[in-house]
From TrEMBL:
<keyword id="KW-0472">Membrane</keyword>
<dbReference type="InterPro" id="IPR000644">
    <property type="entry name" value="CBS_dom"/>
</dbReference>
<dbReference type="GO" id="GO:0015095">
    <property type="term" value="F:magnesium ion transmembrane transporter activity"/>
</dbReference>
<dbReference type="Pfam" id="PF03448">
    <property type="entry name" value="MgtE_N"/>
</dbReference>
<comment type="function">
    <text>Acts as a magnesium transporter.</text>
</comment>
<dbReference type="InterPro" id="IPR006667">
    <property type="entry name" value="SLC41_membr_dom"/>
</dbReference>
<feature type="transmembrane region" description="Helical">
    <location>
        <begin position="289"/>
        <end position="309"/>
    </location>
</feature>
<keyword id="KW-0479">Metal-binding</keyword>
<dbReference type="GO" id="GO:0046872">
    <property type="term" value="F:metal ion binding"/>
</dbReference>
<feature type="transmembrane region" description="Helical">
    <location>
        <begin position="392"/>
        <end position="416"/>
    </location>
</feature>
<protein>
    <recommendedName>
        <fullName>Magnesium transporter MgtE</fullName>
    </recommendedName>
</protein>
<feature type="transmembrane region" description="Helical">
    <location>
        <begin position="363"/>
        <end position="385"/>
    </location>
</feature>
<dbReference type="InterPro" id="IPR038076">
    <property type="entry name" value="MgtE_N_sf"/>
</dbReference>
<dbReference type="InterPro" id="IPR046342">
    <property type="entry name" value="CBS_dom_sf"/>
</dbReference>
<keyword id="KW-0812">Transmembrane</keyword>
<feature type="domain" description="CBS">
    <location>
        <begin position="143"/>
        <end position="206"/>
    </location>
</feature>
<feature type="transmembrane region" description="Helical">
    <location>
        <begin position="316"/>
        <end position="343"/>
    </location>
</feature>
């Protein structure tokens, strides 16, 4: 299915839900709920206003609410928890596996967390406490402990009979993990090999030893990159001594990639991907006020640069008309470079070893584009105001600002990343400040030097 078709399906599902919630009966709403997968229900709940959200949530069966809570963002989940009966929530945990329980416990407030932990059995509690001991944003934090292991010294026929006796295998299983008697990782046996080779062959003869296990401390972002580069469907997670402690599947990684994309997109506007789209007006305004305040400070900085050249602007009015062009072109060029570099940092394609080459390449691009558009604006501005000298200075200032924008577009996110600051969050504000200040300073400064 194409991306356009998926988007159309999501939109039609939301439209149908809105229609049922607005005009349908309780039976219609209940039928709608029964037709939804947990992820679909979460998608709709995030898109609803609080009143319709509460109406739909009241129809969700207790056995499903836990699966939905781990799919919605943090703010929506917190709002849903406030209107959820605690008995229903505790009952919901009984139908969830250990992995789902771990995801759910990450979003529960402390008093409720303690009640849920007390309600589960000792065995499950030990499994969950062990899972919670791993870092949330590591391979150990996203892995499943539902692992199917076999030994290398048995035949494929023995493995087949073992699977038939077992009756089921973990979801998203594309291969079996081969271990020794101490559970140390040795390789994997793809199911395709199990089905296509001589049943009397030993596992050791057909298993794949090229697959490397994932250290449980590996950051989840790097896990996602590994899956993408190696086209993996699943991979074992290993303890420091090489023992298999779990596995990560492509389903886990898809969630990581989606979360990372949401984070990058929202951060560039100073927002959080965990915010409720229909949060109260006052709380939304408070969150955005801080970011608007930061932008206001940078705007005052740019304005102070303009104020330095007040006399020049009063004498040559054309400067006031043309100077926004320089800043705007620099801002757009810098944003293009910034977006490219932020994406490269997120994908681990930019590092200290190639940052210099990327910087030189982007400066070269800025120089070429600067020469091209400097010539264009010089001609247009010169004809517009019948002042070729102003047109030439405008073109030179634009060239300077485009080169500076390229330099800043690479340097700012790389430096922020080294400092442990999210470049998607702070990079845009810093870049805009640089291109505005340099653009105004270059154009008005050159005009002051050569025209007055």
């Amino acid at each position: 299915m194409t991306s356009a078709a998926k988007l159309e399906n999501a939109e039609s599902l939301l439209d149908r839900a809105l229609e049922v919630l607005t005009n349908g009966s309780q039976i219609d709403v209940r039928n709608l709920v029964r037709s939804l997968y947990p992820a679909e229900a979460a998608h709709i709940l995030e898109a609803l206003d609080p009143e319709r959200r509460a109406k739909l949530w009241s129809m969700i069966p207790p056995g499903v609410i836990g699966q939905i809570l781990v799919e919605v963002n943090v703010e929506v989940g917190a709002a849903l928890l406030k209107i959820t009966d605690r008995k229903d929530l505790i009952a919901a945990t009984e139908s969830m596996g250990a992995d789902g329980m771990v995801d759910l416990l990450h979003v529960l407030p402390e008093p409720l967390l303690s009640q849920v932990m007390e309600s589960i059995g000792v065995h499950n509690r030990n499994r969950i406490e062990k899972a919670l001991s791993y870092g949330e944003h590591t391979a150990g934090g996203i892995m499943s402990d539902d692992v199917l292991t076999i030994r290398a010294d048995v035949t494929l026929d023995v493995v087949s009979r073992y699977l038939r006796l077992r009756g089921n295998i973990p979801a998203n299983t594309d291969s079996l993990i081969v271990v020794d008697r101490k559970e140390h990782f040795q390789g994997v046996l793809p199911l395709s090999q199990l089905l296509s080779h001589d049943p009397h062959a030993k596992v050791a003869a057909v298993m794949d030893t090229r697959i490397a296990g994932i250290p449980y401390r590996l950051p989840s972002r790097e896990v996602a990159g590994m899956f993408e580069r190696r086209k993996l469907l699943s991979a074992p997670v290993l303890a420091d001594d090489g023992r298999v402690v779990g596995r990560v599947t492509v389903e886990d990684v898809i969630g990581l990639i989606r979360d990372e994309a949401d984070h990058s997109l929202m951060s560039m506007a100073g927002l959080s991907e965990e915010q409720d789209m229909f949060a109260p007006v006052v709380s939304s305004a408070k969150r955005r006020a801080l970011w608007l305040g930061v932008n206001l400070l940078t705007a005052f900085l740019a304005a102070s640069v303009i104020d330095l050249f007040e006399d020049a602007i009063q004498q040559i009015v054309a400067l006031a008309v043309l100077m926004p062009i320089v800043a705007s072109m620099g801002g757009i060029a810098g944003s293009q470079t910034l977006t490219l570099v932020v994406r490269g940092l997120a994908l681990r394609q930019v590092s200290g070893s190639n940052a210099g080459l990327l910087l030189w390449k982007e400066i070269s691009v800025g120089l070429l584009n600067g020469l091209l558009w400097a010539g264009v604006v010089a001609v247009v501005a010169g004809m517009w105001f019948h002042r070729p000298d102003i047109g030439i200075l405008l073109g030179v200032a634009m060239l300077i600002n485009l080169v500076c924008a390229a330099l800043s577009g690479v340097a700012i996110p790389v430096l922020l990343d080294k400092m442990g600051i999210d470049p998607a969050l702070a990079g845009g504000v810093l870049l805009t400040t640089v291109t505005d200040v340099v653009g105004f300073m270059a154009f008005l400064g050159l005009a002051t030097l050569f025209l007055l």
